[in-house]
Specification:
Elements: H1 2-8, H2 13-68, H3 72-83, E1 88-94, E2 100-105, E3 112-120, E4 123-132, H4 135-185, H5 194-203, H6 207-210, E5 226-233, H7 236-240, H8 245-264, E6 269-274, E7 277-283, H9 291-313, E8 319-326, H10 337-354, E9 360-362, H11 370-375, E10 376-382, E11 385-391, H12 393-421
Parallel strand pairs: 8-9
Antiparallel strand pairs: 1-2, 1-4, 3-4, 5-7, 5-8, 6-7, 10-11
């Protein structure tokens, strides 16, 4: 069956459909012919049996009269008269011992043999036998079956022609589509099957570019409240045109390590979102507190460490800091909706950070955060715009230890860099 299907797949679509439809039609009609023949044969056998039993029973009654008077000539006459009837090819009378008393016709090619007991005065006087000719009926039934089978073949041929004509229209449309795709992809396919050719041309298309991204399980992380620390590099625009490239790269790399190290304490994720603007995203649960508290603590670390970094670089590390939030995260390549939604929050934080001065400004969304209000104070001293205040004693101890660790790592690395430069 598998080999047949593989062989059939080599043909064109019109031939496949036509052959499939005609073969199904042929199998269905031949099945009906076989069932019809079986039913007809069953009916014919029943009729022949009833006819044979009736004829032999009548012969036995007539022979009982002749045997009662021991008239052998009468018995022979009855048998000869019966053989002359159509369908009866042989008849005979047997004694009780099984000897032939009289016979007529031919039993050599007997098709159906029937027997009946000859009774005389209530006692068995012998047996009457007849043989019926069923060959003519069988031959007629065979001719009928052959005729019906031939009709089934003709019907299948008609179905093949009709289906191929109708399938040719469909195949023409598929061929036209394949030609259009071939003109775009420039691919050539040597296959007579229209569906296989179309599949090959489609496979040559850059479907990965057309397929829309599917939101994966990881994208659900972006549908949660997110705190954002926005840093505006106030000093960098002036250094771009005044500082040599090597020193500028060292400056950016050092400030990057400063921000990256501070964000590492609180699982922050860095991303450049504006020209001279960097955002650090905080989301999810953390042992140190809520995302808003972590963002404000990270800003405090960066602000306190910046003066020491300035001494090493001998350049100003002036950063505008603002802490805000968004109801969604930053998104990713699989789901851009959260990132688009967050742009308005980034625009607000960019304005706050650009005019923040030496304060760490707070957006409205994070003012109700319990961890932020209890562990880091909120002041309104900067033109009614809330800013980060003084940390509580317990929290101050934690972030000051973090500050020492951060400065030690940064200054040691810068010292090593200076030694290599020398």
């Amino acid at each position: 069956m598998r080999t047949f299907l593989d062989y059939l797949a080599r043909f064109s679509l019109g031939q496949q459909l036509a052959l499939t439809a005609s073969l199904c039609c042929l199998l269905a009609t031949l099945t009906l012919v076989a069932l019809s023949a079986k039913s007809s044969r069953y009916t014919q056998d029943n009729l022949q049996r009833d006819h044979g039993e009736a004829v032999v029973a009548q012969l036995a009654r007539r022979l009982s009269t002749e045997l009662a008077i021991n008239d052998r000539l009468g018995v022979a006459g009855e048998l000869n008269q019966l053989v002359e009837q159509a369908g009866v090819v042989g008849a005979r009378a047997l004694s009780v011992e099984g000897k032939v008393l009289a016979a007529a016709g031919n039993f050599a090619n007997s098709d159906a043999l029937f027997r009946a007991t000859i009774n005389v005065a209530g006692d068995s006087a012998g047996t009457a036998e007849i043989s019926l000719n069923t060959r003519d009926q069988n031959a007629a039934q065979l001719r009928l079956q052959l005729a019906l089978s031939g009709l089934a073949v003709l019907l299948s041929i008609a179905v093949y022609i009709t289906t191929r004509t109708m399938a040719h229209r469909l195949a023409s449309n598929l061929s036209a589509l394949s030609a259009e795709l071939a003109s775009v992809t420039g691919s050539t396919v040597d296959n007579s099957n229209e569906v296989a050719a179309l599949r090959a041309h489609i496979a040559a298309l850059p479907l990965d570019l057309l397929r829309p991204p599917v939101v994966g399980n990881s994208s659900t992380d972006h549908y949660t409240n997110t705190a954002i620390l926005y840093l505006y590099f106030r000093s960098l625009p002036g250094y771009v045109d005044t500082v040599d490239e090597q020193r500028l790269q060292r400056y950016v790399a050092t400030v990057h390590r400063l921000i990256y190290g501070a964000a590492g304490f609180y699982d922050g994720t860095l991303e450049v979102v504006r020209q001279f603007g960097l955002a650090v995203f905080f989301t999810g649960k953390h042992p140190l507190g809520s995302p808003a508290l972590r963002a404000a603590s990270c800003a405090w670390l960066i602000q306190k460490a910046a003066p020491d970094i300035e001494k090493v670089l001998r350049l100003s590390v002036s950063l505008g800091l603002a802490v805000g939030g968004s109801e969604l995260g930053r998104g990713d390549a699989k789901d851009i909706y959260p990132g688009l939604y967050t742009q308005s929050a980034l625009d607000e934080l960019h304005k706050l950070a650009s005019n923040a001065g030496n304060a760490i400004k707070l957006a409205t969304l994070v003012l109700d955060d319990i961890d932020l209000t209890t562990r880091i104070g909120i002041d309104n001293t900067d033109k009614e715009i809330p800013v980060v205040g003084a940390p509580s004693d317990t929290h101050r101890d934690l972030i000051e230890r973090q500050l020492q660790v951060l400065l030690r790592a940064l200054l040691n690395q810068e010292q090593v860099g200076d030694d290599h430069a020398d």
